[in-house]
Design brief:
It contains 8 helices and 17 strands. The chain is an alpha+beta fold. The protein has a 7-stranded mixed sheet. Strands 6-12-9-10 form a 4-stranded antiparallel sheet. A hairpin with a 2-residue loop joins strand 2 and strand 3 (83-84). Helix 4 (63-78) crosses helix 5 (96-102). The radius of gyration is 19 Å and the shape is globular. Bound molecules: 2-oxoglutaric acid and fe (ii) ion. Residues 136, 138, 152, 224 line the site of fe (ii) ion (FE2).
Length: 315
């Protein structure tokens, strides 16, 4: 990032966020001291705070067994006769192996350390091939109040290669402001805005080189996406789990109209327990001004139709 630091001092990546995760706190150094973490964990927390992501080598599961089980469980869902679904949402409802990756002990304990709250896995996505998804921030789709209590954990079920559509990400981009002004439903504008943003700030793109069994943890606002698949036949089996954290409210900026104060809150189900998290805060219940579950299901159906490669289980 050296060039970018020199040319764009106004990037604002040193700006803390008040009330959010402690790794974004104005008092980060003091908090770090107080926590008395071991050397290795402290280094991981620092990397995450500064760069917005971290690679985890050991998930604390028997990966050979669990990884293979996920692959075997999902093979018939990815391909059913002539129909191919590259992306399967919430397969944890059907596959215990998918669920166990989402609640892998070392992932949960790392997230608890990073965020200081209990992580709640709320969605799984399984890919057969590269997603080729354009660069984006997950916080446009999933966010919380207080902000930034959200992260993604991407697990390689196969090695990433140059050709199978590896992940890319932009270190430090997690500290840019978030993108809620692009709701509701201006996803296309959001994507082209990100393209311009990356160029204007000269953000440096990195490609993940994960091996099977490794995971990439990204914080809510880190820009990331899937590179083009240059070997058309290559698979890139992977599982992403998205997490919120206990004691927040959860929302979809992409579906919210902030200008009119209409926030599309999300009802989430804890992948670990299968239980719905109550839609309330310590101050009382949360209203759903933009419609309830029924409206949400209609929106999901419409989206499903517009994405023929997606297969969804309903949690
Ligand atoms: O797997 C990929 O290529 C990207 C997935 C992603 O961006 C996500 O699940 O948030
Ligand atoms: Fe994403």
């Amino acid at each position: 990032m050296e060039g970018a630091t020199q040319t764009q001092p106004a990037l604002g990546r040193r700006t803390p966020y008040f009330g959010g995760p402690w790794f974004m706190s104005p008092f980060f150094e003091r908090e770090l001291q107080q926590r008395g973490l071991d050397e290795e964990t402290e280094a991981m927390v620092r990397t995450f705070a500064e760069r917005g992501y971290i690679v985890l080598d050991d998930l604390g599961v028997d990966f050979d067994a669990v990884g293979d089980r996920v692959i075997a469980d999902l093979a018939p869902v990815h391909q059913e006769g002539d129909e191919v679904f590259n992306r399967i949402q919430d397969a944890w409802t059907e596959s215990e192996a998918v669920r166990s990756l989402a609640v892998a002990p070392k992932v949960l304990s790392l997230l608890e350390t990073l965020y200081g709250k209990r992580p709640i896995p709320f969605q799984t996505l399984n890919f057969l091939r590269g997603s080729q998804q354009q660069t984006h921030s997950d916080s446009f789709h999933f966010h919380s109040f207080p902000k930034h209590y959200m992260c993604g954990v991407w697990v390689a079920l196969e090695d990433l290669t140059e050709n199978n559509g590896p992940l890319h990400y932009y270190p430090e981009s997690h500290l840019l402001p978030d993108y809620e002004a692009f709701g509701p439903d201006r996803g296309d504008e959001f994507v082209s805005f990100i393209g311009e943003l990356v160029e204007a700030y000269g953000l440096e793109r990195e490609q993940a080189t994960l091996k099977r069994g490794q995971a990439l943890v990204w914080s809510a606002n880190l820009l990331h996406g899937g590179d083009p698949v240059t070997d058309i036949g290559a698979t890139r089996k992977s599982q992403v789990t998205h997490y919120f954290f206990d004691g927040c409210s959860y929302l979809s900026p992409v579906d919210s109209d902030m200008k009119r104060g209409l926030i599309q809150f999300r009802r989430i189900v804890d992948v670990g327990t299968g239980e719905a998290i109550p839609l309330e805060t310590e101050n009382g219940p949360i209203n759903m001004p933009m419609g309830d579950r029924l409206a949400r299901l209609v929106i999901l159906r419409l989206r499903q139709r517009s994405d023929p490669q997606m297969h969804r289980f309903v949690a």
